[in-house]
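Colleagues,

Please find the record for the two-part complex below.
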Amino acid sequence: MTQRMWHNKEIKDRYDVVIIGGGAHGLATAYYLAVNHGITNVAVLEQKFIGYGGSGRNTAILRSNYRTEEGIKFYDQALKLYEDLAQDLDFNLMFSQMGHFTLAHSTASMQAQTTRAAYNQACGVDSYVLEPKEIKEMLPEIDITDHPRYPIHGALYHPPGGIIRHDAVVWAYARACDRAGIHIHQLTKMEDIIMTDGKVTGVVTNRGKINCGMLVSCVAGWSSGICEQVGVKLALVTHPLQALVTTAYKPWLHHVVVSSTLHIYLSQTDRGELVCGNGIDHYPHYGMRSTLSFLEGYAAHVLELFPILHNVSVQRAWAGLCDMTPDYSPIISLIDEVQNFIVNCGWGTWGFKASPASGWNTAEMVATGRTPALIEPFRHDRYIKNRLVGEKAAASVGN
Amino acid sequence: MQIIVPIKQVPDVALNIKVKDGEIVQEGISWVISSWDETALEAALQLTEEAGGEVTVLSIGTAKVQEALRKALALGAHQALHIQCDSSAGWDSYQVAKVLAKTLADQDYNLIITGKQAQDSDAGLTPTMLAEFLGLPQVTNITAFKDVSDASITLHRKGDDGIEISKMTLPGVVTVNDSLAEPRLASMRGIMMAKKKPMETVDIHSLGLAPEVLQSGGLMTEVVQYEKPDERKEGRRFEGDETETVPEVMQNLKKNIGLFA
């Protein structure tokens, strides 16, 4: 008999908690509700299949070398949870802490990376600046001459950064949720939110009405539409982000390489493929199509760094949706105007790497009704109170 | 050897195609090169890599088809020709073949290679009509090329009863079966070089076609409406001990489908 990692179960009339969105954030929230707080009468609703959205479309890079104290501490918790996650979930997540380079192509960029290193070190995160010749020793194929249009001045190096198998993270959380008794309902689209006296009391789906004590939205790029239904306007703009994967080659790239000036990042998977991404498309859109202009731009820029890649073949390209916030930090927040509703969004291009910490803290917020100190800076009303958490300087690429 | 490869930009059938009120919903469609035309391009590239020469890709349509042409250039085609028109929606094979024939009438080439049919219409008529209008020999459904020269080519055709081997004088028209070659992937260098390769745009009205060819009067066939195939019914899973489930499956097949009756 086939052993399934998660099971289709009958939808119940009522759950204590309904989570919309079966990505890494939604599933992690459900998992930590069960294991940290003993709350298992939980349903995760996913309109397609689990991992269909950003969790299955990102480039699987993990790091915590952010710029602000708030961001560094939050992503450091995520990275530490990732380090133990394979053991916690009893699932091989293929986490390779191969080290992460953020290249600097100007004096100003070097100053920025030096500042980041200082902030990182002050918060206990391993991160330091390298000279071009040190970079060359670790990345022999990189061009550090003055021939490229943007010569390399140095880099911020972050040893604990790396890559993980993103699908496996989703599958492992889903299996753990299933084992804890949490219901995962795929192909279940939320169509309406039921409100009574300013409180969320349930949802209407394509499979019927479900009552709930608490509703958590973890739908990333679709968050604006969900929140509009309860009268909450979010400071979000959704943009597509494209990525590509090449055919497989023998292992040669043993670190993650990012260049914000050239708008690219790349790493090599255990299978040998190069996984590559760049900045968001400049127009707000919900389309998840790859374009030739993205491939042209990426090819031009990556060949500046690694001329040896001129003959590599592009196997596949795709796009995902990014819910971009003005300060490049997420929103994990109770909503004052709407009771029994938590929004978890604003993950832009930095969401997957935050998944465990996002789930951990969102679950605590659900269980206690209070905002954990670590995510207090990411409240929804910070845009009204002008308390932005400016992480733009730490974005992988210059979005 | 100079080879012309006419390519058609079609909706990506790997994605969900929506039909509403008898029409295909254009919103959300992703456009790609018809897969058999990709095989035709691959065949042309292999031939020129072996025998020398150049490949010209050609497509008819709005500015949107330039993306397909640029992708073909990224794959290795040497130049592209875009026959610009306001819309080619609703055109039938006859109209397309007429436009291609007029475009190619004064071009210098040895071989025209196309896919055996388009991925969207599945008609397979355009190449045959094109050969007729140009007065050229043609062989369809090719699986292999041999003994290539500027004057002749040996072709392996997949027929109903096996492989037919024929020698064709050139210039001529061939259509390819997808078993001929696996289309290559674009390299980083190819993607970069595509931007620098020549792409000529020609206004369709400058070709000197009779006005009725481009109008609805020029149609020989017309698609009246589109319908989506019926959705497959949900399956049923038989779980439990095989000694119980196998007889149950057999009983269901007999009762509901009439098998083993």
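Chain B has two domains: 2-218, 236-261.

Comments are welcome before we finalize the supplementary table.
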